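Illustration: Alpha/Beta hydrolase protein.
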Amino acid sequence: MPKNLDNKVIRNKLSKTMEQFKIPDIIPVDNLPCTVNGKTDHAKVKNIMPELLKKVTESDVPRPQNKNSKDSLISYLQAVWQDILALKEKPDINTSFFDLGGHSFLLLQLQKKIQQISSVELVYLFRNPTIESLANFLMQNVDDSISVSNMPPSMTKLNHGCETVKPIYMIPTVDGTCAFYKDIISSLANVTIYGFEYPGFKDPQAIKYYSIEELSEFYLKDLLKNNQSDMYNLFSSSFTGLVAYEMGCKLVKQGKSVNLFMVDTVIGEDMQNMPSLAAYLHNLYPQYNLDELSGVDDEDELMQKFIEKILHMKETRVIRHRDTLTSAIAKRYFEVLKSCLKAMELYQLPRSENPMSIVYFKAKIRNKLDPEFPEKSWIKIQEINGGKFDYIELDDDHINVNRYPTCKIITDYIKQIL
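Result:
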């Protein structure tokens, strides 16, 4: 744009009709290279773009002057949140990161920023979703934040609830974490909740394929090592319901009682045509406009295009992710999703040797990836197992049944059972 125009005026005008993260950065220039016909020479513009982008003020949040000062930490965290979430104003210190638009992708970026001043595990960011609580945690636990005392890295306490109520154990979704359950966790404030993390999640190079049976063994090992009980409540959504069911089968075989809460889980064999990995990426991350990935069947090529697409959108300011969004983070999500889909396709639903209770929440709104009647296979297996089966339909789609306000129906029902 010409230098005599005020880019702030333009951005303020755009902010009235566009979401903040969609507003592009504006670079003032004297002129653009032209062809002999007087038209913009796009090839030359492309060549000078790296230099032009350097003129954009890249966010560089100053580190706190004193990380042992709570006020200094709060100011730093406010600046980091404002940057990562592309907020117009500094966030309130008592508002949740997720309520401001944060999600699991951005949580990893937040972790990377904070690790510039202190080592902190992802689970602690999830446990402390407000600036106030996170600042308190960093003040008190900086030296001990690398590991969880008396608890393996796979399992951590996500919510501190009433000790008289049996806890809930959440199985991680296809992004490898339990961040997707944030609204459900918030709606179960009085219930102690534990969550697991996909094995090797912290290192994208360590992520590999695990079958449903292997994942269930991995999570159960940590569960039984730390929390011995005669009764367990397992919570799952989508793919992870298969892992939870396998865990439940193993627990009841040991003489334990199990309540399995399952949200719209589909059995692989019920899907007449297993959707492609590209289709799942498009469905899970609609904000990244991944239409061009359709038809790409080679997994290595698909991963490369997926990463390039997201990083290109960041570099061209189509999405407001900062330098903390890396190819390693994108690769991590891709590899976990790929492994989970393969595991779902190969899994054969076993009969449980002893009955367990299943509460099944179905999304009434079905999209093109969803079988119309996913509950039928679960009804059939429960008839064989001799276990109780409760069925509740929710007026929302596969993703949004897990979010507020629809998830309140789920949590209210769970509270009645607990």
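Reading the tokens back as a structure: The radius of gyration is 24 Å.
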